[in-house]
Write a structure and sequence with these properties.
Distance between the termini: 52 Å
Oligomer: single chain
Strand order of the largest sheet: 3-2-1-4-5-6-11
CATH class: Alpha Beta
Bound molecules: uridine-diphosphate-N-acetylglucosamine
Number of strands: 13
Helix content: 25-40%
Largest sheet: 7 strands, parallel
Length: 368
């Protein structure tokens, strides 16, 4: 069933979707993925391994989770490290060809509650990563930027040439990282590319924190038979982007000719805007949960509407979202359903055994 509005919007004008297995990657290279145990980082790690690339993975497990890398430990060179330990990060970076910098404390409300901690992770951590990459002679540096940089400007869709208007500390931090990345291209010649992600969702997004992304919270609550809370009237809208599309953008931006991408910033999104009320209705249809949501007052620092123009990424590196919103939503619901079924399985199941192997691997990180 297709809820009203889900197939509307300019996505149909972008040409045929790109099947995931046609995405080119660079010839055998060493990719360093920061935030590799996170929701997006771990999806990038998987995609790189599927394409036969060498993967170094870095995480401090502050927001990332070991279980996101389940089954991959023998295939990656993993380093447990904090980006603010510069010497360690520099040694991990040496010998990498491409850095995919995903590590961050990725939350608007968390940055409002504790701006200094998120500043250290998002700005200082990014500066350390850029410096380490520069010193290591890394050729391409892809930076995970955020749509929050646009803020509440009324014009939609958001285009890359619009003036940024960040509201929250998180938005300022992510924008600062972009500007630093562009500066490192200008002054040191490093091929930096910033990808402004728009509300990413999908399997492995952590639903458990008060700061979790809205879809991970809504899906898990609805599957558990609990009514989620919508902040505001639910008429705020977002360009929700399935994680596989973000992975695609990272791979394409890593492989694209430097003259198309170096020193630039691109929107990475679906190109379709949905209100929270529409998304809620879509989830009701998929999950069968038929209660109404609870409504509470607006969240401080929230942006009202968000929608991306994704034509720059299409032109520069052939980005076309391969998974439409509704398909992504279905896959995500299925994934959480499976997780819930497995976590309620009796102990001694294969899941528990994997957990032991996982802890052993982390006990002996390869940077030791
Ligand atoms: C923002 C950024 C996004 C970034 C993310 C990191 C914008 C447009 N987007 O996402 O690029 O990756 O921060 O955190 O700035 N909501 C509810 N109930 C809930 C949770 C959330 O109604 O239980 C609402 C929020 O008030 C908001 C919307 O859902 O209006 C989306 O919230 P969230 O998933 O946290 O992401 P953004 O803050 O939009």
């Amino acid at each position: 069933m297709s809820p009203a509005g889900l197939r509307s919007g300019p996505v149909g004008t972008l040409g045929p979707i790109r099947p995931a297995d046609t995405i080119p990657t660079r010839r055998m290279s060493t990719y360093l993925v920061t935030g590799a145990a996170g929701f997006i980082g771990s999806a990038i790690v998987r995609a790189l391994l599927e394409r036969g690339q060498r993967v170094r993975a870095l995480d401090n497990f502050k927001t990332g989770k070991a279980q996101n890398l389940e089954g991959l430990w023998d295939e990656i060179e993993f380093h447990e490290a904090d980006l603010n330990d510069f010497e360690l990060v520099a040694s991990i970076c040496a010998g990498s060809d491409v850095v995919l910098h995903q590590a961050a404390i990725p939350s608007v409300p968390k940055s409002i509650a504790d701006p200094l901690t998120s500043h250290r992770a998002n700005i200082d951590g990014t500066m350390h990563m850029l410096l380490a990459a520069r010193d290591a002679g890394v050729r391409r540096f892809i930076y995970a930027a955020s749509s929050s940089a646009y803020g509440n400007t009324p014009t939609l869709p958001k285009r890359e040439d619009m003036k940024p208007n960040p509201i929250s500390p998180y938005a300022v931090q992510k924008l600062a990282g972009e500007l630093y990345a562009a500066s490192f291209h200008r002054v040191y010649g490093m091929e930096t590319v910033a990808l402004r992600y728009f509300n990413v969702f999908g399997p492995r997004q952590d639903p458990t924190s008060q700061y979790s992304g809205v879809l991970s919270k809504f899906i898990t609550m609805m599957l558990q038979g609990q009514a989620p809370t919508i902040f505001g009237d639910g008429e705020q809208s977002r360009d929700f982007t399935y994680v596989e599309n973000v992975v695609q953008a990272n791979l394409l931006a890593s492989a694209a000719p430097a003259e198309n991408v170096a020193g630039r910033m691109f929107n990475v999104a679906t190109g379709v805007r949905l209100t929270l009320n529409q998304v809620y209705a879509a989830l009701q249809a998929i999950t069968g949960f038929d209660e109404e949501p609870k409504y509470e007052t607006d969240r401080v620092g929230d942006v009202k509407h968000s929608l991306a123009d994704i034509s720059s990424a299409a032109q520069a590196f052939g980005y076309r979202p391969s998974v439409p919103f509704e398909e992504g939503l279905r896959r995500t619901v299925e994934w959480y359903k499976t997780q819930m079924a497995e976590s309620s399985a009796p102990s001694g199941s294969s899941r528990g055994e994997i957990g032991v192997a996982r802890r052993d691997r982390i006990g002996a990180p390869s940077n030791a």
